[in-house]
Write a structure and sequence with these properties.
Radius of gyration: 20 Å
Number of strands: 12
Strand order of the largest sheet: 9-8-7-10-11-12
Oligomer: single chain
Distance between the termini: 19 Å
Helix content: 40-55%
Low-confidence stretches: 118-122, 124-132
Length: 339
């Protein structure tokens, strides 16, 4: 969103294909927005049903492959209708990546997930060879959250481009004086509600106030202790400005948003790209890591306490993120390399 906002601010016309529930919000920001094919959204991730990490990856890839024929057709239709000067494609829209690779104009790939090893990067982006790859790869991260290495040609690290829809905290929460701990789960269901349940139990006696946001889990299923608030949605920025720690599922977005504000993270990865994100948190001394297979109240309480002590490491990452260039750098690269 910050990148698209910046492009529009510079006078570019932005045409967006996104989730049906986001269309009206995107139109209100000045974009020409339409929903992606309902056939794509109907194919929900079922990787959480797997009993092993490998099984989860296999199920996830099957879903992406099933979506691919729909998002390929969807993008080809949009290109014919809009006839854009350039194109930005999300890396998980694997069929759309293939359609973009056969397009006759330069385009960009947006990859908000940990980048694989350089020799595998283009292959895992769903592109057969570097010659047919995107001219620009926008990677919302930065060193030292990323280990220094030789990056693929065309890749630009712009730092996290964090964004959230507008919203206000409940009045009762703004009156809380204790330090806050944010607990958040995945936006795409992966049965990680037990992270919030365990956190509520683990921190019930701590001199903290726990704020759990559960975008894909019903808040009604939890017993909420006196020092906690459970919500479907709340603006994370407002919470993080008063937080001493964020307990995340290891998603790149939620984890980077906390670190970008200098808030240490306790990452509890359940699958997908989350173990890689959690390892980066730990390696950067910006927080702690606890695999979901080892999750229990005692271990989580210990890891949260250890994470709180990592404030200096988190602030170091925040400084690096702020210096990376952000949406302005991404817009510069799009204009220079693609337009």
């Amino acid at each position: 969103m910050p990148i698209l906002d910046e492009l529009r601010r510079r006078g570019h016309e932005v045409v967006l294909r996104t989730l049906a529930k986001e269309v009206e919000a995107m139109r209100s920001r000045g974009f020409e927005a339409e929903a992606i094919s309902p056939e794509i959204e109907a194919l929900a991730m079922e990787d959480w049903r797997a009993r092993t990490v490998v099984g989860g990856h296999v199920k996830g890839m099957r879903t992406l492959r099933a979506r691919a024929r729909h998002d390929s057709r969807d993008l080809r239709r949009a290109l014919a209708e809009v006839q854009p000067e350039t194109l930005i494609v999300d890396v998980l829209a694997t069929g759309a990546l293939g359609a973009a690779a056969s397009w006759d104009r330069p385009w960009a790939c947006y990859r908000p997930f940990p980048l694989p090893k350089p020799r595998l990067a283009f292959k895992l982006l769903g592109i057969a060879a570097p010659a047919s790859a995107a001219r620009l790869h926008l990677y919302p991260s930065a060193e030292p959250f990323e280990n220094r290495r030789r990056w693929p040609e065309g890749l630009v690290m712009v730092g996290p481009c964090a964004w959230e829809p507008p919203g206000k905290l409940p009045a009762a929460l703004t009156a809380v004086e204790k330090p806050l701990v944010l607990v958040t789960t995945s936006t795409e269901f992966q049965d990680d509600g037990r992270l919030a349940k365990t956190a509520l139990e683990a921190l019930a006696e701590e001199s903290l106030h726990v704020v759990a946001t559960l975008p894909s889990v019903s808040p009604d299923r939890f017993e909420v202790p006196a020092n906690a608030t459970v919500l479907r949605f709340a603006p994370h920025t407002s919470i993080l400005s008063r937080a001493v720690c964020a307990v995340t599922h290891g998603g790149m977005g939620a984890t980077q948003k906390a670190l970008a504000m200098g808030v240490p993270v306790c990452a509890v990865p359940f699958g997908r790209d989350q173990p890689q994100v959690a390892r980066r948190v730990e390696a950067a001394s910006a927080g702690t890591r606890l695999p979901a297979s080892r999750l229990n109240p005692q271990r989580l309480r210990t890891k949260v306490r250890e994470a709180i002590a990592c404030r200096s490491g988190a602030e170091r990452i925040a400084q690096a993120f702020a210096a990376a260039g952000g949406a302005a750098l991404a817009a510069d690269e799009i204009e220079q390399r693609l337009l």
